[in-house]
What we know:
The chain is an alpha+beta fold. The protein folds into 2 domains: about 100 residues, no CATH class; about 210 residues, MetI-like fold. The strands form 2 sheets. It has a 3-stranded antiparallel β-sheet, with no helix packed on it. Strands 4-5 form a two-stranded antiparallel ribbon.
Amino acid sequence: MSEKNSASSIPQPEEKAAEDRVYVASQWQLMWWRFRKHKVAIISAVLLILMYLTIIFAEFVSPYDPRINHRKFLYAPPQKIHFIDRDGKFHLRPFVYGYEGTMDMETLQIRYAEDRDVLYPILLFARGEPYKMWGLFDSDIHLFGVPEGGTIFLLGTERQGRDMLSRIIIGGRMSLSIGLVGLAISFFLGVFLGGLSGYFGGLFDVVLQRIIEFLRSIPTLPLWMALSAALPPRWTVVQVYFGIVVILSLIGWTGLARVVRSKFMSLREEDFVMAARLVGASELRVVFRHMVPSFTSHLIANLTMSIPGMILGETSLSFLGLGLQEPAISWGVLLKDAQSVAVLAESPWLLLPGIPVVIVVLAFNFLGDGIRDAADPYGR
């Protein structure tokens, strides 16, 4: 019996190989192995990659030019996709029926209905309205569309007859890029100023912490509104875009700076930092070669969870009319059309731009949770 127990306690070759692999693995390998176990974070990462790929090729993915007015289809509700026609025949290729609107003489509103005598198959790589990809390449090929004469408004249209799906896709380019550009600026300010504050301390640390406390004591939304209202009204869309990015970054760096400061204060007396100084390493080398890499994973997790704040900030400002405005297209600008209760009662699909905002914010939060858990690969 004892021989059987002792034999079972001897590690099998597969188990020993797995243990040896863990012992020699780098920190990034351990993080990746642990991150793969976080299924929700993996799904969120895939979803975000697909969304960013969509906005990169937005002109191709969009069925219409988001600025083209379809004047016969003002406030048209979403069209339905069908597989079975009115005669009960199944079609392998999905299709939409013809779409037409008639004026209701009692309410003076346009009522839309399907013309079931005409159907238009949904085609992949269909020819449609011309566009210029990234401002460089002319094309008229869209990911999907219908033959000439038909319409495919999957998410309806707005007050000027512009396709909502195309505007949401193009608007994502502005809203999602603001999160990344603003993050780059706040990352630099947070790491640089927080690192100096935590590493050197002294008067600089005291002054910087008082500035951070002052900025964090001001309610965020009123501060955003005040700074946005200060932007010159004659600025172009590009200038307003970068102005909003700077505003969000100047406020968003404070939380990261405090995280970096606390890490530096705990690390500056560690043995490996003292050893680096004793061998003659410069202060910059000690900071960027030894201290910052020791908590890079925590920085990544913190930054990942900061992006939703940037996106929500732009959406809030644009919704209130203090951020991006027409002719710029962003999710906040699109949601601004849903402010009127009377319009919203008749056209509830104008609220659809809020769905990608919620999805992106949740996806970044789940991804941040997964990275944060993976940042401690030796934890349980």
